[in-house]
Design the sequence.
C-alpha cells in the first residue's frame, strides 16, 4: 500500500487519515498545532442532519445591512480586509440566485446523507461512542412570521428526505424545559447529534491513528516537491515527508497550498466565536438554534456553549469579542436563571467557499494529490463522510455519489 501524507489535523484531516489507514495505507498526519486544537476545537458541537441551507440563499443580501449595524448581530466585516474579500463576497451574492442556491443545497444534502454511517465506523473503531449523544437538534422561533420564513428550509429537508418534526409551544417545552416559554414553533431534526467535546473527539481519532501505526508530525506544511508531474514529498518547516499521495485537509489554511497543487479557489477564513457559560440548573440537553436572534446554545462537557456569528477578517487578525459578549444578554433572555459568568472565550477560522459546498476532489494538475477542505459551518458534520470519500478516490473505488458539485475547478 501507499505512503500518504494528510495535511491538517482537524476533524476532516483526522477522518481522512483513519479511513486511509483502514485501507492499509501508511499515513502521516502533518499539522503544526495539537490535533483538534484549531477550528475543530471551538465549533457548535453538532453533527447536523438538517443543515441543508448554504450561506447564500435568496433574500440574504437584503438582511446584510441590518446585521452589520446590530452590535449583537451575526455578521461582522473587518473593512480593511474588504479589498481581498471582495471577489468572495461578489461570488457569494451571485450564488443567492434561487437556482444556484437550490443546487448548492442539494449538494450539501447529498453529503449529509452519508454522515451518520461514516461516523458510526470511526466512533466504533476509536471507542468514542460516548462522545456523541443522539438527541436531535432544535431550531426555535418566537413568532408565526419567523416560522413562516423557514418554509424554504423545511421544503428542502422534505425534498431531500431528512426526517424532522414541527413542534408547537407545548411540545417544545416538554422536550427542552430549560428554555423560557417564549417560542411558538420549533423544527426538531431527529437524526442530528451532539458531540460533547469536539476537540477531544479529534484527539481520540488521532490517538487511534497513532496506536495503529500512523505518524503525527507537528510541523507546518510549506510546499511540495514534484517528480514526473507527481507530488513526491511534502516540504515542512522541519524537513520533508516523502509520499506516494497527499491529501490537503488544512481547513482555512488550505488556500495557498491548493494553489501550488493547481487549484486557485476563493477559499476564505470565516471566523467564528464562542463563549462558555455554566450549565443552568435545568440544563439545555441538545443543540438549539435561535432563529430570530441567530445564535446557538449547545451542551458541552465543560458547560453551556454559546456560539454565533460570521466575521470576515484575516486568518491571523486579533479577535474582536464584543459581538459574542453582547449575545450573552440574548441568551439570558431565553434561559431562566442563566449564569452569565464567562468561563472561557474563543475565536477560530472556518474554511468557507462562496457556495458553501466543500472541495472533495483530485487535484486538476497532480493525480496523486487530493483536496478535502471548505466545509464552512459543517466540518464537524462532514468530516467522516469526507474521509470515506477521499479513501474511495485514492483506492479508485466508486464513492456511490456524484462528485461533480465538489470539484476544485469551475467554482
Sequence:
Amino acid at each position: 500500500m501507499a505512503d500518504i501524507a494528510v495535511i491538517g489535523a482537524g476533524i476532516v484531516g483526522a477522518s481522512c487519515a483513519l479511513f486511509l489507514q483502514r485501507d492499509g495505507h501508511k499515513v502521516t498526519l502533518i499539522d503544526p498545532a495539537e490535533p483538534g486544537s484549531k477550528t475543530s476545537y471551538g465549533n457548535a458541537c453538532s453533527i447536523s442532519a438538517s443543515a441543508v441551507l448554504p450561506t447564500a440563499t435568496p433574500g440574504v443580501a437584503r438582511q446584510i445591512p441590518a446585521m452589520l449595524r446590530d452590535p449583537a448581530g451575526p455578521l461582522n466585516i473587518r473593512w480593511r480586509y474588504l479589498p481581498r474579500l471582495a471577489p468572495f463576497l461578489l461570488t457569494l451574492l451571485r450564488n443567492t440566485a434561487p437556482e444556484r442556491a437550490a443546487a448548492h443545497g442539494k449538494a450539501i444534502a447529498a453529503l449529509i446523507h452519508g454522515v451518520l454511517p461514516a461516523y458510526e465506523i470511526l466512533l466504533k473503531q476509536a471507542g468514542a461512542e460516548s462522545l456523541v449523544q443522539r438527541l436531535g437538534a432544535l431550531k426555535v422561533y418566537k413568532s408565526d412570521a419567523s416560522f413562516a420564513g423557514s418554509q424554504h428550509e423545511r421544503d428542502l429537508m422534505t425534498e431531500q428526505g431528512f426526517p424532522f418534526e414541527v413542534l408547537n409551544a407545548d411540545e417544545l417545552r416538554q422536550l427542552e424545559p430549560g428554555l423560557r416559554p417564549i417560542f411558538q414553533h420549533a423544527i426538531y431534526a431527529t437524526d442530528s447529534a451532539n458531540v460533547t467535546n469536539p476537540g477531544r473527539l479529534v484527539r481520540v481519532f488521532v490517538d487511534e491513528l497513532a496506536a495503529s501505526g500512523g505518524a503525527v508530525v507537528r510541523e507546518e506544511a510549506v510546499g511540495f516537491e514534484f517528480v514526473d508531474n507527481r507530488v513526491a514529498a511534502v516540504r515542512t518547516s522541519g524537513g520533508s515527508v516523502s509520499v506516494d499521495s497527499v491529501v490537503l485537509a488544512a481547513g482555512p489554511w488550505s488556500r495557498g497550498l491548493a494553489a501550488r497543487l493547481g487549484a486557485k479557489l476563493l477559499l476564505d477564513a470565516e471566523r467564528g466565536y464562542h463563549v462558555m457559560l455554566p450549565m443552568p440548573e435545568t440544563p439545555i440537553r441538545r443543540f438549539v438554534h435561535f432563529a430570530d436572534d441567530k445564535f446557538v446554545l449547545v451542551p458541552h462537557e465543560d458547560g453551556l456553549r454559546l456560539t454565533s456569528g460570521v466575521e470576515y477578517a484575516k486568518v491571523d487578525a486579533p479577535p474582536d469579542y464584543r459581538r459574542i459578549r453582547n449575545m450573552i444578554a440574548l441568551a439570558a433572555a431565553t434561559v431562566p436563571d442563566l449564569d452569565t459568568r464567562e468561563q472561557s472565550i474563543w475565536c477560530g477560522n472556518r474554511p468557507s467557499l462562496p457556495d458553501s459546498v466543500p472541495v472533495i476532489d483530485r487535484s486538476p494538475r497532480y493525480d496523486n494529490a487530493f483536496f478535502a477542505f471548505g466545509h464552512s459551518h459543517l466540518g464537524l458534520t462532514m468530516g467522516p463522510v469526507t474521509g470515506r470519500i477521499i479513501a474511495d478516490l485514492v483506492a479508485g473505488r466508486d464513492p456511490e455519489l456524484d462528485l461533480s458539485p465538489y470539484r476544485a475547478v469551475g467554482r
Observations:
- The radius of gyration is 21 Å.
- Residues 120 and 129 are 8 Å apart (CA to CA).
- The chain has a mean pLDDT of 96.
